Amino acid sequence: MAKVTAELIRIAARQVRVWRGATPLRDSSPNLLLLHGGLGDARWHWQTVWEPLADSFQLAAPDLPHFGGTVELPNASFTELVEWIARVQELVGMSQAAIVGHSFGAGLARLYAAAHPERVTHLMLVDGGNIARAPKLARAPKLARRVMGSLLVSPLYELFRKQAFSEAGIRRAFANRAAVTREMITASQDASPGFVALMRQVALSDVPLNRTPRVPTLLVWGERDRLTPLARAYELAAEIHDARLAVIKNAGHLPQIEDPLSFLRVVREFCGVA
User: Where are the domains of the chain?
Assistant: First the structure.
């Protein structure tokens, strides 16, 4: 089985950690770019599936800004993150790639495929991809950014972090809560300040108007997802032309962790890889 190892690249002098399949494959092997969600870094989200995937794909899985070995972006926005992904894809030598995004990463993957369809062969949105409407305060963006950047709001973000990343909050992401290890909880909690910092940056940034990908799209959803219920998948499928849906039974918000074999089968079948 292929090994996945970390390497460091730089974008505008800022360090980015990218996990890559270390076993050389045929030049004709398809490319696969994995974008993780907010519960942890790339390794936390993908380590159950990335070595089997690296047997079939030229694989790259970056840590998003504020996570793992990737430094923060000073003024991150949805548009800046989309272009950051484009730069990562370019630097790892992938002119085109299948994109898999999970949760928050699925939202970014959707926006990226809409902005750069020529770079995306297949799009897979895992338990995410809905683009939330901005709050009314965002209609006055300068005032909103001052308010959201105020020290007065910081305690609210900290309260959200402690609740969302409590042991109970993390276990809620899984259909089988007993399957969550102490190491997983600790790693997720350690990553939580970075996720909250990133969300605080992008929460009131403008969402690109072009948010409808025109590439083959598959939604992959855990049937027992409590964080983004299956009903959201049907809403998302209605927004994206010809999107297909694959439901993984007995899985929650993280089907790639709870049922990696089913997840691998779905990805390989959609991408036409044996």
Answer: 4-271
Q: Which two tokens stand for residue 180?
A: 């969550």
| Positive or negative torsion for Cα 37, 170, 254, 7 | positive
Residue 180 makes CB contacts below 8 A (sequence gap 6+) with 170, 171, 174
Q: What span, in angstroms and rounded, lies between the C-alpha atoms of 268 and 274?
A: 6
Q: What is the CATH number of domain 4-271?
A: 3.40.50.1820
Per-residue pLDDT of the chain in tens (274 residues, 90 and over written 9) = 889 999 999 999 999 999 999 765 556 789 999 999 999 999 999 999 999 999 999 999 999 999 999 999 988 999 999 999 999 999 999 999 999 999 999 999 999 999 999 999 999 999 999 986 545 444 555 545 555 555 556 788 899 899 999 999 999 999 998 889 999 999 999 999 999 999 988 987 889 999 999 999 999 999 999 999 999 999 999 999 999 999 999 999 999 999 999 999 999 999 999 7
